[in-house]
Each structure stands twice: as C-alpha cells, then as structure tokens.
Specification:
Layout (H helix, E strand, L loop, with lengths): L3 H14 L4 E9 L2 E8 L4 E5 L4 E8 L1 E5 L3 E5 L3 E3 L5 E5 L3 E8 L15
Antiparallel strand pairs: 1-2, 2-9, 3-8, 4-7, 4-9, 5-6, 5-8
Length: about 120
C-alpha cells in the first residue's frame, strides 16, 4: 500500500518536472467528499479562485501562503480551514498539501460565494 508521504514524494517530483510547477492527484472521491494531494514548487501560485462550501488544507511539507480576505502563512504539519471567499495559494518553498473539500451542501452550490448577511 502506498502512503500519503510516498504519494507526496511522487507528485512533488512531477511538479518539479511540470512547466507550471504544480501537480495534483485525487486520493478520495466519495459523494461530495474530495481529498486531493497537491504539490507546488517554490514560487508557484494557484491563482485566485472560488472555494467550495467546505474545505481544509493540511500541509505535509513546505510552507504556503493563502491570500484572500486575509493572509495566512501555513507551515508543515499545520491544518487550516479555508474560508468561503475567493483565495489564492502561493508556495513559499516546495510544498505538498492535502486538500479536503465538500463539493456540495444542500442549499449551497459548489464553488459559490456565501450568502450575504
């Protein structure tokens, strides 16, 4: 059985070989639940994008910065809940993270902005 850490090594190597400096693989796809492993080489940015109704980022190695409504630096071993607002992710060093998302919640569309209060 392949461990998440083995997969992290593999996808980081693929990200290093990719012209855009990133690589991702879906590990779990069960109903609305997705768990994806993403690798970004230092300086690579996932441009600003919408967030699904629920998401978290667990950094296995490296350091990333999440920008959007606020800015937060995340280090290896840290778990961060992502907001429902548009955000970007930049690798401060070669990084691999587990992204857990719920792509549909009754009454909320996937990747939509939250209702205003």
């Amino acid at each position: 059985m392949t461990t998440v850490y083995d997969a992290a090594d593999r996808i980081l190597a693929r990200a290093a070989d990719a012209p855009h400096g990133r690589h991702a693989e879906i590990l779990v796809h069960e109903g609305p639940l997705r768990q994806s492993l993403l690798a970004l080489t230092a300086g690579t940015e996932l441009e600003e994008h919408n967030s699904p109704p629920a998401a978290s980022l667990y950094l296995l190695r490296g350091a990333v910065q999440v920008t959007g409504e606020t800015t937060v630096d995340i280090g290896a071993g840290e778990l961060h809940a992502l907001t429902h607002h548009r955000h970007a992710v930049t690798a401060l060093e070669d990084s691999v993270f587990l992204l857990t998302t719920v792509t549909g919640i009754e009454g909320q569309g996937s990747h939509s902005d939250p209702p205003s209060a």
